[in-house]
Specification:
InterPro entries: OSBP_sf, Oxysterol-bd. The protein is 26% helix and 28% strand. It has helices at 106-109, 111-118, 122-146, 168-172, 176-180, and strands at 2-3, 10-11, 15-20, 27-33, 44-50, 59-64, 68-73, 79-84, 155-158, 161-164. Strand 7 (68-73) and strand 8 form a beta hairpin.
Length: 181
């Protein structure tokens, strides 16, 4: 959400999401809480973590998504520091140069718009954005006329959920032969 548009604007996360570990079945419900109109804090987050097949959480997490969070074990009421995002190091993105990217990759598609924003040329950024969105609308219309569905590359629809085709666990798992050494 965009906030304080009349003074110093800032962006606020709001809403909820559900995360489930496909390997263990543990799951969490995370709620990004918006700041009340009067009082309250910005950037609040709360979460409940559940064992597989359980409806009662065994752990809650509260705090600020851009600051410190505290975990509370519900069985004994014990609280402990969960994470302090301010103390974490920054991990730089690993992105191939635009010239090496495929024609449909985001950074390549949006490079003209990004350049306009970077150099404070809002008119050029707006024109680039409009041109890209118009091109995408025309491509979608052509697919519809041809009776073609959009073909995703990285995600597949399973029921109502989109699942990443190559989950992190399959990309980071140690091969059995290497684990024996």
């Amino acid at each position: 959400y965009g906030r304080s548009i009349l003074t110093v604007p800032w962006v606020e996360l709001g809403g909820s999401c559900q995360i489930t570990c496909s390997k263990t079945g543990y799951n969490a419900t995370i709620e990004f809480l918006t700041k009340p109109f009067y009082g309250g804090k910005k950037h609040r987050v709360s979460a409940e973590v559940f064992c597989p097949g359980q409806k009662k959480a065994f752990l809650t997490v509260d705090g600020e998504w851009n600051g410190a969070m505290t975990a509370k074990w519900l069985e004994d009421g014990h609280s402990e520091a969960f994470v302090d995002t301010m103390s974490l190091g920054t991990v730089r993105k690993k992105v191939r140069p635009i010239a090496e990217q495929q024609s449909n990759e985001s950074r390549r598609l949006w490079k003209e718009c990004t350049a306009g924003l970077k150099f404070n040329n809002i008119e050029a950024a707006t024109e680039a954005k409009f041109a890209l969105e118009q091109k995408q609308r025309e491509e979608a219309k052509a697919r519809k006329v041809a009776g073609e569905d959009w073909q995703t590359k990285l995600f597949s629809l399973h029921g109502e959920n989109w699942i990443y085709n190559t989950p992190l666990i399959t990309r980071t798992a140690v091969p059995a032969a290497a684990a024996v050494r």
